Amino acid sequence: MVQGWIKAQREQLMAQAHAAIESSSVVDPTITAAMALVREQIKQRRQRSLNDVQRRLLQVMQLSIWLGGLFIILGLFPYTRWLQSLILSGPLKILGIVIAVYLLIRVSDTFIDRFFNALTANELLPPDTSQRLAQRVTTFSRVLRSLIATVWISTGILTSLSIVGVELGPVLAGAGILGLALSLASQNLIKDVINGLLILWEDQYAVGDVIQIGKASGLVESLNLRITQLRNSEGRLITIPNSSITVVENLSKDWSRVDLGITVAYDANVDRAITVVKQVGEDMTNDPAWKDKIPEPPDVLGVDDIGNNGITLRVWIKTLPLQQWNVAREFRRRLKRS
Predict the structure, then answer these.
(1) Alpha-carbon dihedral 299, 301, 302, 308, rounded to 10 degrees
(2) pLDDT tens per residue, range 89-144
(3) Residue partners of 262: CB distance under 8 A and separation at least 6
């Protein structure tokens, strides 16, 4: 009876969540497209990992058959039997560790992709949360995959050293001393890693955002614990160490804004110009092709400046992320036709 009550409450909460989502504002097609693109990329990467694991398993099986046959052949002759113990003592075990590490890395990548794909496929999340989550998925998955691969490789190296008879205690002590020396010599690298962790944790920006760092601006193409790579409007790839990032301007997080200055002549009727600008904003807000990209009506602030070239009117238009440039172009086009 208790289980039935819990099930009924869960179904009721699910129904309320779906109703809340359906009653909310219309989801912009660009949000759905971005989420679908990220999910498709994760799906393709997971499929490639599965195909790679299957191919490698077949190669391992083939190699095992060849090695097994060679091992049996060596045991058929008395003067080659000593090679069997030599093969079993070290080389074969190290080869097995290398294969195991490779397979563990591929399997880990597959599970990570499945986990993040399940997060982005959650239909109970609000549209804006789902979009932001979809943007962060690629960033977190890349960093997590790199960290796990490093752990597996380090474990494989230590295991191989123990097989060949190397004492791990002195090795770890020497590695600690070497790590301390490297940390003192590469302080910028440590700063890069710490700042990269803070960027990810605080969600300052993610892959797919448009940001400005100092004089550099562009689309975030890659982000890891050490560097951030931007692609600017000219197609140039800009690489920035995370330690040098102090102030970040995110132009596409949550929402964006068009800051438009319109200059009119001194002899023009300012009130008439403001009325025309407001009318253009209302028409564009009511247009089915653009109303989903403009969550609020444009805010005409009025006369912002009086300069040598004329009188400047200031308009603010709140838009969805990454839509401010398209909205600004369309607003200027309509204003010119008015």
Answers:
(1) -120
(2) 667 778 778 888 888 888 888 787 777 766 655 544 444 554 556 656 666 777 78
(3) 273, 277, 312, 313, 314, 315, 335
Output the CA torsion 54→56→61→62 (10° steps): 120
Q: Phi-psi bin for 302: left (phi > 0), alpha (psi -120 to 50), beta?
A: left
Burial label for 294, CB within 10 Å (0-12, 13-18, 19+), is buried
d(CA 219, CA 221): 6
158-165 mean pLDDT: 78
> Coil, strand or helix: which one is 36?
helix
Structural domains present in the chain: 2-165 (no CATH), 193-250 (2.30.30.60), 256-337 (3.30.70.100)
Alpha helices in 222-293 (DSSP H): 270-286
The structure tokens listed for 201 are 């944790």
Q: How many CB atoms lie within 10 A of CB 327?
A: 22
> Which phi and psi angles does 259 have, rounded to 5°?
-105, 100
Q: Phi first, then psi: what are they for 250, rounded to 5°?
A: -95, 115
Closest CA to 47 of 99, 104, 103, 109: 109
Return the amino acid letter for 221. Answer: E
The mean pLDDT of 261-276, rounded to a whole number, is: 88
Q: What is the DSSP string of 133-182?
A: HHHHHHHHHHHHHHHHHHHHHHHHHHHHHHHTT--HHHHHHHHHHHHHHH
pLDDT at position 338 over 50: yes
Residue 299, pLDDT > 50, answer yes
As to burial, measured by CB atoms within 10 angstroms (0-12 exposed, 13-18 middle, 19+ buried), residue 24 is exposed
DSSP string over 202-223: HT---TT-EEEETTEEEEEEEE
Q: What is the C-alpha to C-alpha distance for residues 285 and 282, in angstroms, rounded to an integer?
A: 5
- Token match 């690489």: residue? 239
